[in-house]
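Incident log, support desk, overnight shift.

02:14 A customer reports that sequence design results differ from what the structure should imply. Their input is reproduced verbatim below. On-call engineer (initials T.W.) acknowledged and began investigating.
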């Protein structure tokens, strides 16, 4: 479909990669799945749909670079627990009772929440193959899917999970909104021998890797006891960083850990709400940025964060570090916005396709209503998204050139059915 967005404020990239974003009142023209022109219509362009952008802000769609969509129905059922009690005492037992259909409906609810707050792409670590991918394909969302891997050496269970990851990738090869990575869960659920196998498989299959690293003090202490190194040093030793690598959390990292991440071009996903709620601390984001590490933003799952609203994370990531570093300049609104958009796209190896509004890129857009108290007066729209918005301002979402949400209503999903099914899951699971 050809779409004309008329007379909107549009967040555009600066003249260079380092320059600040600029906001211009202009028109956008979409042909098929891509942005065809900015400002002036392409020759012969005939709009099939006109969107009035008056009092609207058009942003690149937000990118949630780390979550677990399938456990969305576990929101508010494992609160106020220490990290290991939360994971192994509460979440894992529920996961063991889940069905594949449960995972599908959980993912549907997660996608609904993300889309309604302006997210157009997410990076997911999941356990029930074919279910999140099914929800993504049906909803029109864009996603990177990582089958969570747990293993010990070349054991049958670990090998089976690798084969499942390949089977899922191949089953959805026809959907270009889906890409795939390998997802070794963490150093405490994958031993060194299995991590080496994953590193070899990623190289052989030309796949990236997504893994939890250095999330808690307990993880660091146990890794030091078992392997005599930090989790990041272990990952390097196993060859995991030879493939495009996304490290989730990196809360408990040393200066030498950060040097390793920078040297190998590892992208780090900070998840401020989840890290605080589980008592794991604050990732040294300003220090990582200074070292040139590509830092992006994630929510983690609703079982730990309670929300998949990336707008909320944008506010947190800046305010937290201003406070902990006693420096109002340590993370700017501009840097926060980049973490939620182009940095996330680069981490997911999608920087040439999405993450910024440029001619030729995919039309993945979020349109925010400026006629909301939280957005008035319109002084600095980028700062408004980073500090003032709460997510409810998202009015329209376009993904791959398709309008998936309009006037706040998601067009590609049955909202009431999703609520009904998720309520039933938790009633059944107790």
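02:41 Re-run completed on a clean worker. Output:
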């Amino acid at each position: 479909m050809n779409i004309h967005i008329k007379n909107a404020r549009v967040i555009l990239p600066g003249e260079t990669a380092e320059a600040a974003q600029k906001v211009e009142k202009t028109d956008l023209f979409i042909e098929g799945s891509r942005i065809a022109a900015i400002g002036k219509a392409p020759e012969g362009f005939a709009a099939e749909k006109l969107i009035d952008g008056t009092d609207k802000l058009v942003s690149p769609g937000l990118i949630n670079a780390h979550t677990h969509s399938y456990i969305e129905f576990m929101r508010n059922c494992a609160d106020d627990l220490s990290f290991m009690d939360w994971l192994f005492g509460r979440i894992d037992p529920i996961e063991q009772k889940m069905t594949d259909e449960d995972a599908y409906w959980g993912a549907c609810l997660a996608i609904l929440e993300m889309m309604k707050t302006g997210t157009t792409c997410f990076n997911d670590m999941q356990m029930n193959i074919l279910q999140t991918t099914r929800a993504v394909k049906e909803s029109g969302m864009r996603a990177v899917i990582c089958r969570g891997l747990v293993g010990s050496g070349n054991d049958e269970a670990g090998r089976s999970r690798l084969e499942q990851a390949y089977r899922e990738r191949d089953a959805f090869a026809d959907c270009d909104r889906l890409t795939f990575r390998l997802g070794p869960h963490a150093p405490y659920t994958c031993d060194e021998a299995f991590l080496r196998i994953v590193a070899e498989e990623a190289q052989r299959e030309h796949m990236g890797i997504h893994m939890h690293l250095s999330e808690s003090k307990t993880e660091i202490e146990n890794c030091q006891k078992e392997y005599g190194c930090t989790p990041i040093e272990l990952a390097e030793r196993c060859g995991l960083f030879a493939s495009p690598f996304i490290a989730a959390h990196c809360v408990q990292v040393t200066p030498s850990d950060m040097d390793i991440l920078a040297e190998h071009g590892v992208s780090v996903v900070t998840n401020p709400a989840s890290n605080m709620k589980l008592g794991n601390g604050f990732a040294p984001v300003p220090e990582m940025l200074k070292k040139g590490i590509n830092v992006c933003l994630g929510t983690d799952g609703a079982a730990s964060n309670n929300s998949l609203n990336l707008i909320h994370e944008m506010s947190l990531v800046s305010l937290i570090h201003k406070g902990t570093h006693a420096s109002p300049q340590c993370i700017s609104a501009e840097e926060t916005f980049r973490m939620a958009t182009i940095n996330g796209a680069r981490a997911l190896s999608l920087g040439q396709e999405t993450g910024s509004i440029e001619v030729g890129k995919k039309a993945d857009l979020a349109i925010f209503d400026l006629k909301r108290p939280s957005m008035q007066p319109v002084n600095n729209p980028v700062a408004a998204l980073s500090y003032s918005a709460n997510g409810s301002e998202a009015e329209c979402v376009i993904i791959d050139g398709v309008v998936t949400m309009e006037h706040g209503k998601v067009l590609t999903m049955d909202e009431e059915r999703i609520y009904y099914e998720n309520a039933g899951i938790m009633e059944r699971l107790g």
